[in-house]
Write a structure and sequence with these properties.
8-stranded mixed β-sheet, 4-stranded antiparallel β-sheet, alpha/beta, 23% helix
Length: 262
């Protein structure tokens, strides 16, 4: 792809994605296999969690229309869905600046419908989508923070809303793929109803399809809110690696419409 030509630096980020610095000192997120090149804005971020989701999408058979909720400024999942041949992709984000950048950041941006809204665009009909994907804001925080991080006091605000409404927007054989932090009580509630049990009560059959270990950066939002997380989810224990760094797991959930629990 053009992004690799005259590159000053190429770094592999995952199996199918590379971070490339070109001759103009621009940073690009590139997948030669998928034919994707996304510019990282100056001072922007590399969507590391999004790449975990993207690699999972590549393993799936994607059919029909797709919705990417909380697409972010690179729109990595929407771009991946486009490359995989999805017929129509809608990508939403609550941050207007993220949508503004995503609209022109990629060679595939013109093929995607970009919408600035809170989770779900208006006017969507039930049974519209073959796949819905989301890497939603989900950091438990005692006070509202940046919209890319804040998921409510227990971190589940957006997760719960996506599950509750997403079920109706999926086709009969559709899939909802969502990334969740394990400390939110995904399969074990840690003092709350588990996310999987919540999904089941809303008619969604759910399974964990991938687990990834994530080291907690000392300057990051998770580290900043560790004590709050421990208070909200008593019983959850952060683990330590051999170097003494705290870590937790990032889980990818696959949900499909079933029957609501009685």
């Amino acid at each position: 792809m053009r992004g690799f030509r005259n590159s000053k630096d190429v770094r592999r980020l995952s199996r199918n994605f590379f971070l490339v610095t070109n001759e103009n000192s621009e940073s690009l997120l590139i997948s030669g296999k998928l034919g994707i090149a996304m510019r990282i804005r100056d001072g922007g971020y590399v969507p590391k969690s999004g790449l975990l989701m993207a690699e999972q999408l590549i393993k799936m058979k994607i059919k029909g229309k797709a919705l990417d909720i909380g697409t972010g400024e690179t729109g990595v999942l929407a771009n991946c869905l486009s490359a995989l041949g999805t017929s129509c992709i809608i990508a939403s984000d609550i941050d207007p600046l993220a949508i503004q950048w995503a609209r022109q950041a990629s060679n595939r941006s013109p093929d995607i419908i970009w919408i600035n809204c809170d989770l779900f665009p208006q006017g969507l009909a039930d049974g519209t989508f073959g796949v819905i994907v989301s890497n939603p804001p989900q950091m438990p925080m005692p006070h509202p923070g940046h919209p890319h991080d804040y998921g409510g006091p227990d971190g589940r605000d957006y997760i719960s809303r996506i599950i509750s409404k997403g079920r109706f927007l999926l086709r009969e054989n559709g899939k909802l793929l969502m990334l969740c932090f394990d400390f939110l009580g995904i399969d074990h509630g840690f003092g709350h109803e588990s996310v999987i049990d919540f999904a089941r009560s809303h008619g969604m059959n759910t399974r964990i399809v991938a687990r990834h270990q994530r080291v907690i950066r000392k300057e990051g939002k998770t580290a900043e809110n560790v004590e709050w997380i421990k208070a909200v989810y008593p019983g959850y224990l952060f683990k330590k690696d051999a170097s003494g760094n705290l870590h937790h797991e990032v889980l990818i959930l696959e949900m499909s419409p079933g029957h609501a629990a009685s």
